[in-house]
Amino acid sequence: MTSRTTRAVVAGLSAALLGGGTAGAAPPRSREPILLDTDFQLSSPSDDALALLLALQSPELDVVGITTVAGNETVARATSDVLRVLEIVGRSDIPVYRGAGRPLAHVAGAWERASYGRWHADGEAPPPPPGGFARKKAEAGTAADFLVRAVRARPRELTIAAIGPLTNLALAMRQDPGFAAGVKRLVIMGGAVAALPDGAGNQTPNAEFNFWVDPEAAQIVLRSAAAIQLTPLNPCRKTNLTQSWYERIVSVETPVTGLVRDILGPQFAADARRRVSMYDEVAIGSLIDPTLVKTRELYVDVDVHHGIDYGVSVGGDERWPGAEAARRMPVQYDLDWPRFAELLVQRLTAPPRALSALRLSAGGRSPAPPGSCPPRSRACRGGRPSRARSAGRGRPDNAATPARR
Fold first, then answer.
1. DSSP-derived secondary structure for 201-247
2. Alpha-carbon distance 219 to 224, whole Å?
3. Residue 104 CA to chain centroid, in angstroms?
């Protein structure tokens, strides 16, 4: 996609007000354009998929682009799976860019290859997603290039929700020194902070999966000028999706709830007492309604030394030796689970917010659908068009196998 097309994709978005919301939430507000950076997969654990569905179904958010990265699976599978989901729910207007296939420096040894995650298997052909590969294709160009162009086109207007390893963002920051400061805010699902309750890791005793996959990228991003809001494992351990919550969702039949049935149904069929933990969904939920979480301001840094604490995130009230470059940020540590669960059920059971439902009038104008070029735009015709984890994120709570996420 050319820079002109990128500007059209992003600049064609307009603020619009929609109904909805949960009890106790703030009044309806202008839709917030977000870019989603994800190590997507449809198979268990599948919190990336549920997080995307929650974002697409929430009127507060406007998903204007998706970038994929290796993490749970290879970047090829992350890309093919997310393209298929967008096709199923009628959102093929959203551009998808394939990102980094390997971490910046982390090389997989025997232990890594025997542990959860396929981030080290770049080059493997992805299996077909349910229903086969999507007709929609990924856009030309890299995720990092797209992120840089999009933020340059709308400085201080785009929020990025990063729910996988932070490789793409680190590459964008290396490419453009002004990228971090140009992001309105960066919501990250990653890390585990031992200084706060429930701060154990899930990949190693102290390291969370996303940061552990690419510690060097996590350190670059956390030390950057971006306005970061961190969703570590701590508040995610308050989540507890039982079969009763699941049955409320799938009692309604839509393409969205059909995906939820495909994702979670086999887990509850195997064990009706299963309790599904949620991670990426919490980061998205905090964007929709910030009052769902409690936060504390901390300096946070990541250990990049190849030893026992490789990939461990550390938080403190003050900087400490070795973390002189650490930056202060709001770190989530608690979650109102009942309200979050009600929000999840409400949004996932609502009529799908397909492209036609988003053609709303805002400020006397008819905005282009999110993530698309304005109608009749010549830019849309240039280049390739946008065609229609034991406890923790391992996510062993959710996985059918003992593998970690």
1. -SSSSS--HHHHH-HHHHHHHHTSSS-EEEE-HHHHTT--B-HHHHH
2. 8
3. 19
* Per-residue tokens: 207: 């390291």
Give pLDDT, residue 183. Answer: 98
Nearest-10 crossing angle of helices 280-288, 47-56: 20
Sign of CA dihedral 307, 170, 34, 27: positive
How confident is the model at residue 60, as a pLDDT? 97
The rounded distance, in Å, linking the Cα atoms of 202 and 87 is 32
* Terminal Cα-to-Cα distance of the chain (whole angstroms): 33
Given a cut of 80, whether residue 370 has pLDDT beyond it is no
Confidence band of 29 (pLDDT split at 50, 70, 90): low
Instruction: Characterize the bridge pairing of strands 159-162 and 32-38.
Output: parallel
What is the per-residue DSSP string for 317-340? SS--TT-TT-EEEEEEEEE-HHHH
CB 333 within 8 A of CB 296: yes
Q: What is the fold, at CATH topology level, of the domain defined by 3-13+32-381?
A: Inosine-uridine Nucleoside N-ribohydrolase; Chain A (3.90.245)
Residue pair 153/6 in contact (Cβ under 8 Å)? The answer is: yes
Mean pLDDT to the nearest integer, 259-268: 94
**Alpha-carbon distances, residue 383 vs 83, 165, 379 (angstroms):** 19, 29, 8
**CA nearest to 222, candidates 117, 311, 107:** 311
- Domain residue spans of the chain: 3-13+32-381
DSSP calls for 53-110? HHHHT-TTEEEEEEEE-SSSS-HHHHHHHHHHHHHHTT-TTS-EEE--SS-SS----H
Q: What is the pLDDT of residues 127-156, one digit of tens each?
A: 999 889 999 999 999 999 999 999 999 999
Bridge partner residues of 330 (DSSP): 297
Contact at 8 Å (CB) between 388 and 136? Answer: yes
Going by pLDDT thresholds of 50, 70 and 90, the confidence category of residue 109 is very high
Backbone angles phi, psi at 145, to 5 degrees: -60, -45
Positive or negative CA dihedral for 269, 273, 248, 235? negative
How many residues are there in the chain?
Answer: 405
- Cα 227–Cα 228–Cα 230 angle in degrees, nearest 5: 165
Q: Per residue in 279-320, pLDDT tens?
A: 999 999 999 999 999 999 999 999 999 999 999 999 999 999
- Dihedral (CA of 334, 335, 336, 338) sign: negative
Tell me: the pLDDT tens digits for 173-185?
A: 999 999 999 999 9
